[in-house]
Design brief:
Porin; two-stranded antiparallel ribbon; mainly beta; 16-stranded antiparallel β-barrel; about 400 residues; disordered C terminus
Amino acid sequence: MQMKSALLLAMTVSLTAFTALGQVDPDKRELVQLGFTQAVQGASPVAAYGFYYLNEPNFLQTNLTLRIALAPVYLDSEVGLVGLLGSNTDLGIGLAGGGFADDYYEFQNGKYLPEQSFTGDGAETSVSIYHLFDPGSRIPLFGVIRVKEHYSAYSRNDDTASGFVLPHNHGTTEWRAGLRFGGREPLLHPDLAMELSAWYEGQYRTESGSYGFNGDRILEANSELFWARALLIYTLPESKRSFDVELLGGGSWHADRISAYRLGGNLPLASEFPLTIPGYFYQELSARDFVSLSAQYSVPLDAGHLWSVTPMGAVAALEYVPGLGQHGSVNSGVGVAFGYTSRSGVWQVMLDYGYGFEAQRAEGRGAQSIGILCQINLGARHPGGATGLDRFIGFLPTHF
């Protein structure tokens, strides 16, 4: 059962990367995203994603946009009503649900603990308001307000310890407010992007209290998160060399294991704000507060710019969630990826290797990982698709 649920989770883990864009996306998109990462040392759950994503403007009528992200056991969707609340203000109504999206995996001191891990299924509805403050500007400034109702139902898997008490099934009311200047297209590696953004999210649960072994951990009645991001991606027009630099920082009040920031791994589309550190397990580290800096530099290997090599690195300083701390507050990793992009731009594949310097394993400090990422951009085959440099602004995912 543990392997079965992990494999099903592997097909849904990345859907949150596209569930709540910073505006109603005005461009037609049709993508297939696949990703997989595996640690070389130590046992861990399967970390992967695979889903089909469609954004359809002018759905049924000109002021409606339909967005769907579909995996084998999970569906996320939103209908955007363009200009419903004014010429620069859109309304989004979302519906999502399915299996294994709320699974929880426990890591302590670099060790995966299946006996303290459990399955979680979920369903949610949301209402979002997207407002453009500077219409006509080259770089847009958007405000977002979102209210979401989420229900989580937990169950044991075959490896959960018999004496481990699960958290209560519960509903969570979440509300979010944020400002985003610029943005990033929802692609594996856009040619150009710039973003400055700041966010607040409050989470209020209908059930809370202790769980685990003899009540050794707690599900908070409410948690509050606040974070900011600065991002720059730029590709030189002639050489096609590209660099990507991202600075992320966040804090919290009353963060618990469920609501904490999760860092580690190298799956760039596994969440709306991916906190990657090469070489680590996916979401190995749980933090109440953190600062993270990551960078990569892509160099073409041939005249046609089809093959590339991309060195990368990341470093994060964090304050751990109580009960999940380890020696040293700084974690860092480096890696390298070898990529191929088809001449049409439809296919993009990357093979990567990572080394985590401070990752704790049975052999001591240091861990390695390997992975593969694949994007099939079906929209790239259609003239007028959102593949040019001028289309990089205005597409911000908004959840960890």
